[in-house]
Each structure stands twice: as structure tokens, then as C-alpha cells.
Specification:
There is one protein chain. The protein contains 20 helices and three strands. The chain has three domains: 1-160, Up-down Bundle (Butyryl-CoA Dehydrogenase, subunit A, domain 3); 165-369, Helix Hairpins; 415-502 and 515-565, no CATH class. The chain has a three-stranded antiparallel β-sheet. By secondary structure, it is mostly helical. A hairpin with a 5-residue loop joins strand 1 and strand 2 (45-47).
């Protein structure tokens, strides 16, 4: 239970640091200008002066939050004491939030005096202060939760480097500095306010392209070329670091799940065949569960960003007469980065909320699009195969394929493809039954029967390693990993190794093995990275088996007695 809570909180430090970059940017906007403005009858606005104490407290809040960001980075980068460093950063963020909320409460309770017919309203800076103060609290909670759970586990330096990855935080800070710095550059060039300029920079770098604010000077348009190019590049690096961190956390969770089952694949010199089969089952189930979990959470977050934010935009743009459908249309077009520009926020709250909302939507959309490619492809492939299997014309299709195959030119197949596509008779071989035969079950012949002579067995291992190397070298995509395991599992033990006790195979009512359609979808259509990792795992097991045989041979040969003794 303790390990599960720590695994659930492994992403908290990176998430808190990433949100900290955004909160610091918002806090900077809150400090730079006043929070109230007078609105004249001709719609022109004038920012009202703010008292010196408010400016001082906002500056102190910004300094404290920047110190918290630096403390977090220093703790993660230098691998300092987690409890002290993270709790100190959490306390600093909470202190900054308390100062901001104090100033917000005082300002909200003292409306300014304006002369009629002028009115007043809050500026975008005021709302940025609310966003920053609101973000600091969950950030502190995330760090405190992780600091409390990390004491229950023993982390190696490698695990700490994976969990406390500063690349995402540094790239998030770089993106925030780029957005805010670019906005500050365009303020004197185009005559915009800093908040309007930040609003333009966000929808430009995020490729939304609303277009209601655009550079009109020659210098501003000229600077757009390098600014947009560098900004989109920075965004791409940030998105790539999110994908990389997600992959690392998935591998870490899988390793801890294997260790909870008593399987330490990386610590054992040569794992037992039972551990290999069990680990493969756990890996397959974990990847399937992890893929659907990420897809479900990303889809829920996307729906919340779409539906809930549409309600917020409907309220903020009521002066434009937006309906809920108009807000749904605007948020969908913005989430998809289409950016027609026919609808856009004009209120101060609408613009500031758009910046906050768009920056949150970037990682959610990135994760959702990435996992949709995998889940969608596997789901469509699965149902198409099921549909094709139930169609009456599939037999005609097989006859047509056989006819075309007979009419094709006679040419030797490539070596890589010859072992990449297995014959259909091995499609339903059960790995467990391949390792330990059951006399009552129907078994197809072994692909690689266990040989009696050790030299022949070693030669067969070497040939299988060579085939795996060819697959990786030629980048063969159509590889049935299940079939490769059927070939490799018998090679991992010689006759005389300990007998394994596997459960009985699951048979269909007709007495035959159940077709593993899901296995085909999961294994044959794996991504290139997952496929290569599993192929490398096969090679590692074969190499370790071969080395163990060679060590035994060296120990048993009198010519190498002096080497064995040393």
C-alpha cells in the first residue's frame, strides 16, 4: 500500500515545478501594473494608481515564489534531502499565496472612486494575481504529499533522476520566459499593454492564431519570423520532454509492479523461465491497462477543458451576447488550434482566462493525441479483424490471395521478412504449453525443440540472436513477438533444468486453443519503441544463457582450471 501511494505521487514534483513556472509568470504580470482601471464613455481605459504597500507586498510575493522555484530545482538537481527541500518550497509557495490573497482581498473590498459617467473594472493583472495565488496552494500540496510518501521507499540514484527530472521544469521556465519576454518586447513596438501582448504571444506560439490582436508595424511583423519559429521550437521541446517523462514513469511503475510480484529481472543473472513468462504476462497487462488509463484521464481532462471552460467563457463574454454553443464552438476551435478568429474574448477576464486555459490545454492535448494514435489504431484493427472473421466472403478473399501468390514471380524472400512473419500454424501457440507440455492438450510441434548436445544448443542460441539483430538492423515492423517468444522460450533451458509447473491451457468448447485476437493486436502492432525494447530483452536473455553455458564449460575444462580458480 505504501509503495502504491508513492507510485501514484511520482509525477508530483515535476507537475508542481511545471505549474510553478506558469504561476511565476502570472505573478509577474500581477506585479507590473495596477489591478483597477477606469473605463471612459468612449471605451478607452486608464489604469488607476495603486498604493505603495500593495506594490511592495506583490513584489515580496513574487520574490518568495521565485525562491521556491529555485529551491525546488536545487533540491532536484543536486539530489538534496527531499523532505527538507520540498517542504521548504511548499511553505514558500503557500506564503506567497497568502500574501497575494491578502492583497486581493483588500483591493476587492475597496472599490475606487471615479467620476460619472466613467465606470471602473478590474484589469487582467488582477485576474493573473488570482490565478497565481490559486496555483501555489495545490503546488504546495503536491510537494508535501510526495515528501511524505518518499520516506516509505528506498530510491536508487537512477530512480531519483527519473522521478526528479528537471528537464521539463527548465523547459517550462524557458517557455514562460520566452512568452513573457516576447510580450515585453512587443509592448513598445506595437503600443500594446503587457497583458494584451502576453495574450497575443500565447495564441501565436501555441499556433491557435485567433487574430484579433496582430502586429501592424513593419518591425513587429519582421520580428514575428524569428519569434514564432523559436517559440514553436521551445514549445516542441517542452512537449517532447512531457512524452519522455511519461515513458520513464511508465517503465518505473512496471518495474515496481514486477518487484512486488517477486520478479527482479535486472538483478538476477539468469532469470528462471517461469519468471520470464510471468514477467511477460505482467508487462502485457500493464501496458494495456496503462494505455487505457492515460487515454481515459486525458479524454476526461479534455472534456473538462472544453465543456467547463465554455461555461466560463459564456459568462465572461456576456457583453458580446455569447450563448453556450458559441462558447463551445470557440473553445473547440481553440483546442484543435484551428483558430478561425470569428469569435474571440474581449473582456479582461476572458483574455486572462484564455492564457491560463490554453497553457493547461497543451500537455493534455499532447498526451491525448499521442495515446489516441495507439488506442484508436488497436481498437479499429481489433474490430475490423473481428468483422472480417465473421464475414461470409472471407473464404473468397483467401482464395484470391492464394491465386495472386501463385501468380507472383518466384523470388527468394528477404532474410528479415522470412523470420518476421510466422506461419499460420503457430498463431495460437501458448507460451506456457510450449515450455511445459500437457499430455491431454493438443500441441502444435515445437518451433525450436530442445537439443541434446550443448554445442548444438549454443549454436541455436547464436543463430536466434543473429536473427534478432537482423530484425533490429533492418527495422522490420511486421514482427510477431508472440511467435518470437515461442521460438526463444525453449532455448532458455537445457534438458535437465528444473521442471516448470504451468496452469492448464484455456481451451475453447471445441477443444482447440482460443484464437488470441487481442494478442495479435497488442503485439504485432506495437510501437517501434516497445517492440525494440522487447526484442532487446529477448537478446539479453539469450546472451545471458549462452554466457552461463560458456562459464560452465570453462570451469569443467582442465585447461582453464587456473582461470576458474583466479
Amino acid at each position: 500500500m505504501r509503495h502504491r501511494w508513492w507510485l501514484a505521487s511520482t509525477s508530483f514534483p515535476v507537475l508542481a515545478g511545471t505549474l510553478g513556472a506558469m504561476a511565476t509568470m502570472f505573478n509577474t504580470c500581477a506585479v507590473c501594473q495596477g489591478w483597477q482601471e477606469a473605463v471612459q464613455p468612449d471605451a478607452n481605459t486608464t489604469i488607476l494608481s495603486q498604493p505603495a504597500w500593495a506594490v511592495t507586498l506583490k513584489a515580496v510575493s513574487l520574490a518568495i515564489s521565485a525562491t521556491a522555484d529555485f529551491t525546488l530545482l536545487l533540491t532536484m538537481r543536486l539530489k538534496l534531502d527531499v523532505a527538507r527541500g520540498f517542504i521548504a518550497a511548499a511553505l514558500l509557495w503557500c506564503s506567497s499565496s497568502a500574501i497575494l490573497f491578502t492583497v486581493l482581498g483588500v483591493v476587492a473590498g475597496q472599490p475606487p472612486s471615479v467620476k460619472s459617467p466613467e465606470t471602473w473594472q478590474y484589469t487582467q493583472n488582477f485576474y493573473y494575481g488570482i490565478f497565481a495565488a490559486s496555483l501555489y496552494i495545490p503546488m504546495g500540496i503536491l510537494l508535501t504529499s510526495y515528501a511524505g510518501s518518499v520516506r516509505t521507499v528506498q530510491l536508487s540514484p537512477k530512480d531519483r533522476r527519473s522521478v526528479e527530472d528537471t528537464s521539463i521544469i527548465l523547459r517550462a521556465l524557458t517557455l514562460a520566459v520566452f512568452l513573457l519576454g516576447g510580450a515585453a518586447i512587443y509592448v513598445p513596438i506595437e503600443g500594446w499593454s503587457l497583458t494584451d501582448s502576453l495574450y497575443w504571444a500565447v495564441y501565436t506560439v501555441l499556433t491557435v492564431g485567433i487574430g484579433n490582436i496582430a502586429p501592424k508595424t513593419h518591425l513587429g511583423r519582421s520580428l514575428l519570423f524569428p519569434y514564432a519559429t523559436a517559440g514553436i521550437t521551445s514549445l516542441g521541446l517542452f512537449v517532447a520532454s512531457i512524452a519522455s517523462f511519461t515513458t520513464k514513469m511508465g517503465e518505473l511503475h512496471l518495474r515496481f509492479e514486477l518487484e512486488q510480484e517477486g520478479i527482479h529481472m535486472h538483478e538476477m543473472h539468469l532469470p528462471r523461465k517461469a519468471d520470464v513468462l510471468k514477467a511477460r504476462r505482467i508487462k502485457s497487462e500493464f501496458h494495456r491497462r496503462h494505455r487505457w488509463l492515460v487515454f481515459s484521464l486525458s479524454a476526461i481532462a479534455w472534456l473538462l477543458l472544453w465543456l467547463v471552460s465554455a461555461r466560463v467563457f459564456k459568462g465572461s463574454e456576456r457583453s458580446q451576447g455569447w450563448t453556450y454553443f458559441d462558447a463551445l464552438y470557440f473553445t473547440f476551435v481553440s483546442l484543435m488550434t484551428i483558430g478561425y478568429g470569428d469569435l474571440f474574448p474581449t473582456s479582461n477576464f476572458g483574455k486572462s482566462f484564455f492564457v491560463f486555459w490554453a497553457l493547461l490545454a497543451v500537455p493534455v492535448m499532447t498526451t491525448l493525441v499521442g495515446v489516441m494514435g495507439e488506442v484508436g489504431f488497436r481498437t479499429v484493427t481489433y474490430f475490423l479483424r473481428r468483422l472480417w472473421g465473421s464475414c461470409p466472403w472471407k473464404h473468397h478473399g483467401r482464395r484470391f490471395k492464394a491465386l495472386m501468390r501463385n501468380r507472383s514471380l518466384s523470388r527468394p524472400p528477404s532474410r528479415s521478412l522470412s523470420h518476421a512473419r510466422p506461419p499460420s500454424s503457430y498463431a495460437n501457440i501458448d507460451l506456457e504449453n510450449q515450455a511445459h507440455k500437457h499430455p491431454d492438450a493438443h500441441h502444435p510441434p515445437d518451433v525450436s525443440p530442445t537439443l541434446q548436445h550443448p554445442a548444438q544448443h549454443d549454436l541455436q542460441i547464436g543463430e536466434e540472436i543473429e536473427k534478432l539483430v537482423d530484425i533490429l538492423k533492418d527495422d522490420v515492423m511486421q514482427v510477431d513477438l508472440h511467435y518470437k517468444w515461442v521460438q526463444i522460450i525453449p532455448l532458455l533451458s537445457l534438458e535437465g533444468d528444473e521442471e516448470l509447473d504451468f496452469p492448464e491451457p484455456r481451451l475453447s468448447p471445441g477443444g482447440h486453443h482460443r484464437p488470441q485476437v487481442v494478442r495479435e493486436v497488442i503485439c504485432v502492432n506495437k510501437s517501434a519503441t516497445d517492440r525494440n525494447k522487447e526484442l532487446l530483452w529477448m537478446m539479453k536473455l539469450l546472451v545471458e544463457k549462452l554466457c552461463s553455458h560458456l562459464r560452465e564449460e570453462v570451469r569443467g575444462d582442465p585447461k582453464y582450471k587456473h582461470l576458474a580458480g583466479s
